[in-house]
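Form 7-S
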Amino acid sequence: MFKGILITKDEAGYRARFQEIDEAILPQGDVTVRVEWSTLNYKDGLALTGKAPVVRRFPMIPGIDFAGTISESSHAAWKVGDRVILNGWGVGETHCGGLAGIARVRGDWLVALPAAFTERQAMAIGTAGYTAMLCVLALERHGVRPGDGEILVTGASGGVGSVATALLGKLGYRVVASTGRTAEADYLKALGAAEVIERSELSGPGKPIGRERWAGVVDTVGSHTLANACATTRYCGAVAACGLAGGMDFPATVAPFILRGVTLYGIDSVMAPLSVRQTAWARLAQDLEIGRLEAMTSEIGLSEAVEVGARLLEGKVRGRVVVDVGR
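Output:
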């Protein structure tokens, strides 16, 4: 038995509870990990509250991320005592996840914990920070450089947005952070934003094409925000879209793409191949300042995860939340 969050769904409804869990519930896998730290992402909030059909198998241990130490392994690449992290792969959705003391997974899904990070720091980054790095890598591959102009980060007070702001600021880009919580302006500027704008400037219906401003965009919001970001991106600029906090719709036209040569990159962190993950984590170890990471991170115990997950969806959580699985 071990402690964790268990989600059940039956005639009595959808429930997420902190409780003792029998190890027999764990699915098959060639590696067993003693989980030490996890985290809460937007998707975790959806899973914990049931506000979207993220969980597709019941009962389910949620948590799309974890960091810990291997306790059993029949996988050739891993041995007992190895320190590892996991992000995505359907864990916490169709395969029991990281908001519990033990996880059993496929060894092919794991990445070695970078020496630059502790398990706690790796989870302060989590899927949110790893996704932010994938967005930065997409802009770099496109050829967007710090001297090319402003970079817009939407949903900047959230997990992905906070890490993206810190990364881009460290790399020398002029970051304009869009947020619905303008009281967080000092926080975002401390992370690396040069300017903070109110999200309402982008969140309403806009024109098919607008005044050119952004050399690049990291968008975590979707819907009208993404459409307006594309419409105001500069000639041959790039937009990396990775989120849907504002909606799954995309009320746009082809105008920015065929009149300005704007490129829209879709960023998937869940099923990205191992080589991509390793590149992203290596760059995080190189480019993310630990001080800025700590400034955006708060800590909770596992027993608090359900409550904080609901607050996260309400926009009441700033930056990143790490979960101490031992308490």
